Amino acid sequence: MDTWSAAVMLFLIMDPLGNLPVFMSVLKSIEPKRRQFILIRELLFALGILFLFLFSGQSVLNFLNVEQETVSIAGGIILFLIALKMIFPSSGNPSGLAVGEEPFLVPLAIPMIAGPSTLAALILLANQSPDRMVDWSIALAASWSISAVILMFSNVFHKILGERGLVAMERLMGMILVMIAIQMLLDGVTKYFIHAAGAL
Description:
Multi_antbiot-R_MarC, transmembrane, cell membrane, UPF0056 membrane protein, 200 residues, globular, 81% helix, membrane
């Protein structure tokens, strides 16, 4: 896989367009002046975590004795809970935060940007070709930059779609997120049983 193919793959996994409704829903009760700061902060947090996993993800998992399938199962459960709140909204945000409460790391940086699938993909790239870390770093920086630009201009999408359009998009993305979460959970469970069967 070349650098740009890796960048496209990471961008598709990050899915900034699919994450737009979640970001806007989480930030809608925050004062407009603070939204940009919070968004930049969460994006930078996510970038730091992504680079951390690219260079030392497998070592961290080995140290904690955590398998990649465990990360997939945990991420699937978290995304499923967020998706349910998107489809059946309460008075708060899909993240479970109180109205006006600022998100910190969860759920914007993790798992919306630096999600289990993205982290697993980075670990896979690093393990397959550890001599091409510069290429993978460029791919990660490029995919993150494009995602950041899309999320930073979320207000433009708000003006184009309107409030009802965003609500409909949020419900639709919630349904899609449920399917992604269940697939992620099933993949983790399947890999776990295959791994367990191979150990016997």
